[in-house]
Design a protein that fits this description.
Blueprint (H helix, E strand, L loop, with lengths): L1 H26 L3 H12 L6 H23 L8 H17 L3 H14 L3 H29 L1 H16 L7 H25 L4 H17 L8 H22 L11 H17 L6 H12 L6 H43 L1
Helix pairs in contact: 3-4, 3-10, 4-5, 4-13, 5-6, 6-7, 6-9, 6-11, 10-11, 11-12, 12-13
């Protein structure tokens, strides 16, 4: 019961953040910005969104194939369609509740491909580490190709942060965190040894083994070049979604690949703040565009609406296809078993 209450509260908090950022952003718009917002969306070149849709779907397919490559070293060979369906269902869930998608796509694939959930969680953690590494590379590239433009923006933001007086020195905070982490590790280790035969401890150890096996698949990866190629391709689709999307509005049509790198760098963080980036994504995009003297709020909302719409529509379809196709598959398997008997 408490777990359900906690999940609901967590969802309401994140949703509240998204709604607040949306309200705050729209309420702070000047009369001129409101006119720009309306005119930009009315006069947008929506035909440009077709290649954005294609690039987005290709990115999702590539992510599903990359996940399949991670799973195979554990001795399982899920179908590409099931992996893609589960991935899209996960994205759909993330739109409403951050991080819920990872749980959903693992449980769905586990159900229809008979793969232990704990092992799938391990592959998801590995995916996130590689994505985090790629994100840092994107930030470095963004700074290198636009040293003057981006460095001035970073300096301004850093000065704003450091101008805030801290009541507690940062080194004390770090020491406290290290002490708490050390104590947590010692307590957990003592509990595991003291109650090693307890059913919950046994389950926890099983979870640990599954996660470790999924996480260490990279050591036995046979298709490393394909894995790296898909990783590069996935992040390239994110970049080109923005770059192509610039052409949809006259206000952003003159922006180049450098601006696309900047938008991707900050907008990625915004996706963590609220469910599906609601409110936070357009706000982050607007702040980045100001660096390039483009005071337009519409582009962020346009791109957020397109990418979220794709996830909601395609994710819903994939959820139905996942159940329908695997239902037929299970019926055929049962029929074959009955025939063999």
């Amino acid at each position: 019961m408490m777990k359900k209450v906690y999940s609901v509260l967590k969802y309401l908090i994140f949703l509240g953040i998204g709604i607040f950022l949306t309200w705050w952003q729209l309420s702070k718009m000047t009369p001129l910005q409101k006119v720009q917002f309306k005119d930009s969306l009315l006069n947008a070149h929506y035909i440009i969104l077709l290649p954005v849709f294609i690039v987005t779907i290709l990115g999702h397919i590539s992510r599903a194939v990359r996940w399949k490559i991670l799973i195979e070293p554990m001795g399982y060979r899920p179908t590409t369609t099931n992996t893609f369906y589960a991935t899209m269902c996960g994205y759909f869930a993330n739109t409403f509740l951050p991080r819920a998608g990872e749980i959903l796509r693992c449980t769905l694939l586990s159900r229809y491909e008979k793969i232990p959930v704990t092992k799938l969680f391990g592959t998801i953690l590995l995916e996130r580490i590689f994505d985090l590494f790629c994100y840092f590379i994107i930030i470095i590239i963004t700074i290198l190709i636009q040293v003057e433009t981006v460095s001035d923006f970073i300096k301004t933001k850093m000065n704003q942060i450091t101008s805030i007086k801290q009541s507690i020195p940062i080194w004390i905070i770090i020491l406290i965190l290290l002490f708490l982490a050390g104590m947590f590790f010692i307590i957990v280790r003592w509990v595991l040894k003291r109650y090693k035969d307890h059913k919950y401890v046994i389950k926890l150890k099983g979870l640990h083994i599954g996660l470790r096996e999924g996480f260490t698949t990279i050591l036995h990866l046979k298709k490393r070049k394909k894995f790296l190629a898909h990783t590069i391709f996935i992040w390239s689709t994110y970049l080109f979604e923005i770059y192509i999307g610039f052409s949809a509005l006259s206000a952003t049509s003159s922006l180049g690949i450098g601006a696309a790198f900047s938008v991707l760098s900050l907008a990625t963080l915004a996706m963590i703040v609220s469910p599906g980036g609601l409110g936070a994504f357009p706000l982050a995009v607007q702040q980045v565009l100001l660096i390039y003297n483009v005071d337009n709020i519409s582009f962020g909302w346009l791109m957020w609406s397109v990418t979220t719409g794709i996830i909601v529509v395609v994710g819903s379809i994939c959820f139905g296809l996942l159940m329908y196709q695997n239902k037929n598959k299970n019926e055929k398997e049962q029929l074959n078993q009955g025939t063999n008997i």
